[in-house]
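Submission sheet (multi-component)
Chains listed below:
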Amino acid sequence: MRDPPNFNAGLVWWSATPVQPLFRCPWGSEVAHAGRRGPRLSAEARVRHDGSNGQVVRPVALPVVPGATLGVVANPMSGRDIRRLVAQASVFPNAEKTNMALRLVSAAGATGVARVLMSTDAMGVAGGVLRARDKRRPGDPRWPELEFVELDAITGTAEDTRELVRRMAALGASVIVLLGGDGTVRAAAAASGDVPLLPLSTGTNNAFPEMWEATVAGTAAGLLATGRVPAADATYRAKALHVAAGPVHELALVDVCVSTVAHVGSRALWQPATLRELYCAFAEPHAIGLSSIAGLLHPAGRTAPDGVVVHLAGAEHAPRTVLAPIAPGVVAPIGVRHAAPLVAAQPHPVQLDRGTVAVDGEREIEFGPATPVTVTLAPDGPRVLDVRGVLAAAAQRRLLDPSAATAGS
Amino acid sequence: MTGTLPTPTSQELTPDRLLDAYRVMRTIRDFEERVHEEFAGGDIPGFVHLYAGEEASAAGVCAHLDDRDAIASTHRGHGHCIAKGVDITGMMAEIYGKTTGSCRGKGGSMHIADLSKGMLGANGIVGGGPPLICGRALASKHKADGGVAVAFFGDGASNQGTTLESLNLATIWNLPAIFVAENNGYAEATSSSWSVASDDIADRAAAFGMPGVIVDGFDFFAVHEAAGEAIARAREGGGPTLIEVKFTRYFGHFEGDQQLYRGAEVADARERLDCLKRFRARVTDAGQLTDAQLDQIDSEVASSVDAAVEAAKAAPKPGADDLLTDVYVSY
Amino acid sequence: MARTITYREAINEALAQEMERDERVIVMGEDNAGGEGSPGEADAWGGVLGVTKGLYGRFPGRVLDTPISESAFIGAAIGAATGGMRPVAELMFIDFMGVCFDQIFNQAAKFRYMFGGKAVTPVVIRTMWGAGLRAAAQHSQSLLSVFTHVPGLKVAAPSNAYDAKGLMIQAIRDDDPVIFAEHKMLYDTSADVPEESYAIPFGEANVVREGGDVTIVAIGRMVHTALEAAEELAGSGVQAEIVDPRTTSPLDVDTILESVEATGRLVVVDEANPRCSLATDVAATVAQDAFGSLRAPIQLVTGPHTPVPFADALEDLYIPDAGRIAGAVKKVVDYGG
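Outcome: structure written.
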């Protein structure tokens, strides 16, 4: 058994000895492997994998494509969203991220992925995946080889995400699945280049990631990683909003909101009376978060060339009002002065002279008269896996028939 | 709850309030740095546990409190005392064990209290505060005075049964209680990432039916905002909240601790993350306060700490008569 | 106007009268009403042995059921006391003190002293003590001496319904933390108890029986056992004086010393375990302060140095009986000739 990875000196439960499985079978491991794995089958019904009793051998997964690699980056940070206090933001424990990672790995195994690169962290997400791997027994469904990508130092910031994505790209990942909110996607987008990302919604601030069950997402990612659906058919390039505030430059994938709130503080924006300008790379009517304001007035798709710009006012003074789901559990009246298409490549100067700029729902930049702020839409966001498209193609081309598939095709 | 948002906290940070906040944090910092020096000189008896580095938590929370509100603290209680308005001259004298101390020299650093200000005392028992806070919140509820009670406790206490029981009790009795878990990464010499099974203390909140959130403890504004929401909700009968503040302490568990268990995080924090530096940069960049105003506070605070130390050193120690008094109201 | 009521009823009446008089008095404990959140009756129990029955309905919002979280709710009672309430919290069995002892002995007991005289903690913690119910080792102890040992606490342990009412009223009005220990075998005993409200001061012993030959100091249920022994002894011409301290902290040492100075002989009866107990406390105090009056060594009649056994035959051997007390008296009377 290889040495356990050194995740972090602070993760004290690692020791020099091989990791013991967390669950100890009370009957002893020999007995556990021997007759307890399922109902007893009669000799006639029992299928032998070598086909020696003459039965048809049906494969239970797609053939492995050597080198096909998929990455999983799980952001272990959670619980920092003040909307857990002021609205009904979800509580998303790290144990659930571990479960999602395991579902991804299972699906990757079923679709013939050779290797999964897993992010490491000091908060137990990767630890949970490792424990699950070590509890596996012969006869369990095939898993890809799991490789844990270590960082030289865990900073606990977005830099960890960026570095993990860089390393996974360098190690040959054909797609990287992200478990985290908008902040995770933004960080990954800064480092992913042409490697497609598949953001899965966890945590609260999830305007960019779409809601996909992890097993389904893993199936789609596996089809891309093994080349069964070509990248051109499986991905699209997202738009991005570039915010320049003096020397500071930030990237948003969904929306940029300028508000009168003076300080970054606890980051989330939830007070309608303070919102002034909203720039959206795309705006879907079914979104949760600030972009729903635009989505309910002037929808713009993820792949359409334009975005949307909305000028806001207090609900009492505005010519029109829209009830928008701006935070979990909150549908609030938002006053709108003006909504219009946001054309790419045109820098828009922010009109408010003092306040904060929120990027994808989180206040990031404090500005005053000395720092003029501009917002520009561009088509240079990350490549994103189109789950719906991939699985539609898989259905049409019967890609998920294990007996029809041949290795390497 | 669709359609209604909580009204934004009334605690808008006006320049005056910003000045007050800075004064509180600067007073805590100078007080603790000075105690650190004086302790090394050998004049201070017993144990002291210093709060330097953690000022934003006490200041950010206590900015929303008044005299009808109660707080319970820990053995690392000087910061909470100062933020709640306890007089530093009495505090310093108490630390020196003098009869002019807040507790007449009979409590010491770990038991400084001022019940007239709702400060239920620093506490030498880890986890001793949360049950008391449930009681004060119950009393406020009973008296319907709109008061709240805040329990400051550490990552060590977050594993203590008393704390967990109190979280449960506060929810089932719907108490106006706020639990502030100050996670500075160490319970004595043991890392909290090891000792806290859920990794984040805030994750425990859901298990006890209350909202929980993590806040950057080096950022006064983040603490102020989260605490403001929690306190406003509690005052309106919305029940308890758990706020986990993450930061680091600049000194050891106690004065004299060699801190061999630590890495280089203190130097980095003092340089990059320090709450006073960040506060100054933010408010001056935003044009809300000037460096001159803040420098003025720095110099006033430095003088007041000097005066407190001088007064403490000059004050008399309690005498034999004081030994037997104040055990009971009447016996 | 006095009438005969039980020890249980007397405590209930004390609580009710004080709750009527002072709206700051609240009651809390496990099943002190009994039924919180359940589909049946609220106030289904009124306390595990019915002491608080009826208060829930009479004083809405002032009788609180608690979860089984002694640290939290005993601590909450203490905290509420510092905030101007006068809570009466129930620590159901004195045996449970282990799970909440810190809040009692490190917090409540020490606030006044540690905070330089500025704290007032008027909390009453009611608790059941004593063997005889076949409740076994963890529900039968007599741990009053542990609380008595702690400066800052007061401890009351009434032996009869009359004292129970008066001491409870005093406990609630007292501004210090009070442990009010109710002997579980005395709940059904009766005495003449005035209807009106009255308070018995702490630190005042009751001379239950006068006699010139020996002083018996006894507490709780043992007061009754001592009376039984005294009847037996009277038959052989020995007149025993029985002193019931009523409160172990403060302890009325003067009355005990006065009695020993008159009789010259002391037997202390305490059903608790013998080491570091009330019995040893009284014996040492008398030996130090009234040595010259003693005509015989002091005799202690206590439980053994064992946990309380379950089997009725064993528990009956554990608890001191009248015969053992009479035997100890005979020893001191017969001493030296």
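Remark: The radius of gyration of chain B is 19 Å.
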